[in-house]
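Researcher: Re-running this chain for the archive, since the previous output was lost when a drive failed. Same request as before.
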Amino acid sequence: MITLAAASLAIASLAAPSFAQDTSEPVPGAESGAATGVLPPDIDTTGAITTTAPPSIADVIQAVKATDTSATQIGTISAIGEVKVVKISELAGSATELQTALTEHQDDLTKLRSAVEANPALMAELDKKQVEVPRIVATEIEADGALTVYVQ
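Model: Regenerated structure tokens:
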């Protein structure tokens, strides 16, 4: 009798309907942020929803402070991933604080620009985007190999 009950339960579980997830509908809140001023969410590889804020002057200042490290990294890069160019004139934040950081890290900035000029793969990408090396104020290298170049 117990085996008959177990068999009935097993058959009932096999006959249960399965439901597929409808992926044709957009994720709630994922509408274009242009009209709302809100950034659309990104879904990372774990399925978590994240938003990517646009860079600010504070981000550039952090990148300027890490310019010595960036120069070393750029000197070792042989393959360039995505290159994003960000004009600092379009960012929110204190230009005075940025100028102070640039002044304090002038020697590192010179090293960074030299490293950029010495990297043929990076120079080819920057040429495509019409970026002049003397306009570079900082760079950030992402874990995926993408490079953000901040320019004046």
